[in-house]
Amino acid sequence: MEDSSTPQNYQTSEETETRNITETRNITDALGRNVEIPKSVDYVICSGVSSLRFLTYLEAQDKIVGVERSETTNSASNAKPYSLANPQFSTDYPVFGETRGQDDPEKILYLDPLPQVIIKTDSTTGYAPAELQKKTGIPVVVVNTGDLTDNREDLDKSLRIIGQVVGKEERAEEVIAFFDEKIADLEERTVNVSKEDKPTCYIGGIGRAGGPQGFQSTELTYPPFLFTNVINVAYGDRGIINAADVSKEKIIEWDPDIIFLDLNTIECGGERSGLNLLQNDTSYRQLKAVQSGNVYGVLPFNQYATNFGSVLADSYFVGKMIYPDRFRDVDLENKTIEIYTFLVCKGNKELGKEIYDKIINVYGVSAFTKLEI
């Protein structure tokens, strides 16, 4: 006789677990692919540049079950704020692939627990998303890296897609709003500066995918210059074809009032270092910025794609150096700590201060200071 006290739709815990595993939902990734993923996602891996950075911004880094090779290297050239805030990335997780999305399907399938979703940038390197998904049987969701300027829409979309995957939609909107707020603040402080009061500036030593670069590596749309309405000598010269290797003659022709140096260039070592060139090259030593001592160090711009928090911190430094009256109320150390605390430290201000202390002197030469030339 059937026990009437037992509901007819009663399921054992095993049946419930099976049902939950098979419940799915659809998500549209950055390539417009319709990807079926589990309804609830607890385990992921991040493949390619910026994907783990984005997950950390969304405060969901505890969901990873493995890392790329790039996260296991502790060096100045790998001093990324999101990694510094999470030293467990380099010690606590197995490696599932090489850098820049060079995934190893066999290693992925040996991960325990198995990831439920692979979040991937660099969709043109390594296995194509559909092929990787076929080889592993794990859904692959593609996002773009984007940036804070020309490709801001891609950046926002990527944060929202990852937020949907890991259930951090609200946090994604908070991060987007944080970027909006800081950029608007920088713009508001500097938008009405007359052209006559704007010095000409150059940024050298911008790191790229190939690693640290020399003084001739610049950025036409360097965000800290754009956000503070500074005159970028490189941006105004449409004759530049390769911003990664501007000619020495062109820099001398521009003769900027102020030079900023991305301190990642020190990693070049020896004579290739932008700092060494400014100190010893007779032609560069004739530049008015060098002659007047207006050469300043800034935090690294690109390390495994863009460090967006460092971009904002550099922007406040540039603004404060060029327009001190307009940034009088900004304490640069506190502002930088605030930025890192929000983006990568889950609101832990003490950890934010620790990250600041590490990264400000990571190359042995302090950022946000006048360099000895």
SSE succession? HEEEHEHEEHEHEHHEHEHEHHEHHH
Number of helices, counting only DSSP H or I runs of 4 residues or more: 14
Largest sheet, strands/sense/barrel: 4 strands, parallel
**CATH homologous superfamily of the largest domain - what is it?**
Nitrogenase molybdenum iron protein domain
How many E strands?
A: 12
Low-confidence stretches: 1-20
**Proportion of residues in β-strands:** 5-15%
Secondary-structure-derived class: alpha/beta
Descriptive labels:
alpha/beta; 2 domains; disordered N terminus; globular; ABC_Transporter_SBP; 373 residues; 12% strand; four-stranded parallel beta sheet; ABC_transptr_periplasmic_BD; Rossmann fold; 12 strands; three-stranded parallel beta sheet; Iron(III) dicitrate-binding protein
What's the arrangement of secondary structure elements?
Blueprint (H helix, E strand, L loop, with lengths): L12 H10 L1 E5 L5 E5 L5 E4 L3 H7 L9 E2 L12 H4 L10 E4 L3 E2 L1 H5 L7 E4 L8 H8 L3 E3 L9 H15 L2 H22 L9 E5 L18 H5 L3 E2 L15 H7 L3 E5 L11 H7 L7 H5 L2 E4 L9 H15 L9 H13 L4 H12 L13
Parallel strand pairs: 3-7, 4-5, 7-8, 9-10, 9-11, 11-12
Antiparallel strand pairs: 1-2, 5-6
Helix pairs in contact: 6-7, 7-12, 12-13, 13-14
Structure characterization notes:
The chain is an alpha/beta fold and 373 residues long. The protein has two domains: 17-167, Nitrogenase molybdenum iron protein domain (Rossmann fold, 3-Layer(aba) Sandwich), CATH 3.40.50.1980; 190-360, 3-Layer(aba) Sandwich (Rossmann fold). 36% of the residues lie in helices and 12% in strands. The protein has 14 helices and twelve strands. The chain has helices at residues 13-22, 51-57, 81-84, 105-109, 129-136, 152-166, 169-190, 223-227, 248-254, 274-280, 288-292, 308-322, 332-344, 349-360; strands at residues 24-28, 34-38, 44-47, 67-68, 95-98, 102-103, 117-120, 140-142, 200-204, 231-232, 258-262, 295-298. The strands form four sheets. It has a four-stranded parallel beta sheet. Strands 3-7-8 form a three-stranded parallel beta sheet, with helices on both faces. A three-stranded mixed beta sheet has the order 4-5-6. It is globular and about 65 Å long. The protein starts with 12 loop residues before the first helix and ends in a 13-residue tail after the last helix. Residues 1-20 have low confidence and may be disordered.
